[in-house]
DNA sequence: GGGGCGGCATGACATCTGTCATCCCGGACT
DNA sequence: AGTCCGGGATGACAGATGTCATGCCGCCCC
């Protein structure tokens, strides 16, 4: 159990699947005298156990990871270790990601093309009880509105993303081919596009997929 | 002009668009006593000028960058500064990327989920005249064969990737709609898939797009 | 000079996709 | 009880897409 009192070093967990990036971020944080990276994992489903075992103060989570996403890991951490501060760090500044990260209990949301100095800064701020969110992204998330797709529409769209045909989608999802087309049709209209490919594209880069 | 003689420090240029990753990699390399990161750029089209200005020994290039790709930058460097060693570092281990990186004059090809230690090691090896390539990837590149698509097919497929309709592609590429369909049809057959969406997918993750 | 290949085009045809109207069911809210 | 919404389905229809045969041009190579 760590105390987080002034002067003590912050115990950080790093979750990121690309080793080179992960170890590089560790090196970066290692330069800060008040921060210590005490655990590194490459999969979302190893986050909770590692956080428990190493009694970490702050978890730094990438979203795109095998096993489970950083968002899911954040939700688990928030439920099991409510004291723990969570920083979500991701490649894509998708408004939907920000929204779901916050709903999962994240304290900070950073994109990887922000200056590196913001990383250590964010760690310190969340520890002080602050929340850290890129204002531009926050605006986009609020303006963009919530995900308009129903669960089923999202499922079907996700399944259709790789170019599967309607018949294949139907068998894969245990639906009638006609129903698949109906869901895709409504999704297409809700997203104001003209075919499934465009629908996949916009849903993806809003973080709705 | 640097000498690269034993004992001298290696002058490295880092090209990577995501600041956080770039600065983290710089921190990582900074830990090595014999390596010095003397220049950092975030765009492909700034690589050549920076390499000239800072008299670098090794250029470390990400592929996915705005301006121009790391591959294109590598080709420029190789033509203008043949002495310079080039390490291509990328997120995706696509065989096609490896192939074109090598054709562009790269001396090493690393994927970001290799262990971080390989980065400094690769820098030293290329400087010693060695070539560094992941054997698994090399095998895949050789087995996978060359890109079977013609220039036009690739162009059309790339343009179709975002879900544009045939008519739109036709006007965008100054072609007849029928011709667009012909190209897509041949591309679909060459890639042994059943529609444009799948064609885009497989072309993409072979690095052929 | 003939053959092959790539770029470009057309027309015909079969299938796939997207839309719409319409239906049934169950849960939630008034 | 009535209404709305989401899940699931059917059938009909128009338009988009994929295939194929065929033709023309220009280039390169034997």
TrEMBL record, chains A, B:
Keyword Phosphoprotein: yes
Modified residues (4-aspartylphosphate): 62
Domain named Response regulatory: residues: 11-127
Keyword Metal-binding part of the UniProt annotation: no
SUPFAM superfamilies the UniProt entry points to: C-terminal effector domain of the bipartite response regulators (SSF46894), CheY-like (SSF52172)
Stretches assigned to the HTH luxR-type domain: 142-207
Keywords attached to this entry: DNA-binding, Phosphoprotein
PANTHER family reported in the protein's UniProt record: TRANSCRIPTIONAL REGULATORY PROTEIN DESR (PTHR43214:SF42), TWO-COMPONENT RESPONSE REGULATOR (PTHR43214)
The protein's name in its UniProt record: Response regulator transcription factor
Native source organism of the sequence: Streptomyces rectiviolaceus
Taxonomic path: Bacteria, Bacillati, Actinomycetota, Actinomycetes, Kitasatosporales
